[in-house]
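We recall that each integer encodes one residue's backbone shape. We quote one record:
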Amino acid sequence: MVTTTLKRITPGSAFKVGVVVNGILFLIAGIFIFILPTVAFTSMSASISGSGISDADIRAMNDIIGLVGGASMICFYFVGVVMSAIIGGIYFAIAAVIYNLTAKWVGGLEIELQFAHTGYLDEIERDINAAEKRKNTL
């Protein structure tokens, strides 16, 4: 295992990661934006049906609410995905700048890396170990 310190995060890469992460999160969470209003409108129409309003008026009102509500929810969903992605990217970029300033003062995060024992990385690790052994014998 190799211990190394993460000294700097580029704000550009943090922005890209933030855009993707927040976009996906809103894609998933935004589904509930469709489900909850549908349940609310259904319960509203059920409570209105016993209030003395004619069935034709209730059906007309449900059609209008369904059309307008559905269209606005779809628009809100797609605008929300884009806005969430952009705002998340900006937030991640600002967090990277703050991390970089903090890492200058107190040092960065120390992380342990373990290389896979397959292919090219094995050769590099073997060369490093051989060089260290030669250095210790001199």
Notes: The two ends are 24 Å apart (CA to CA). The mean pLDDT is 81.
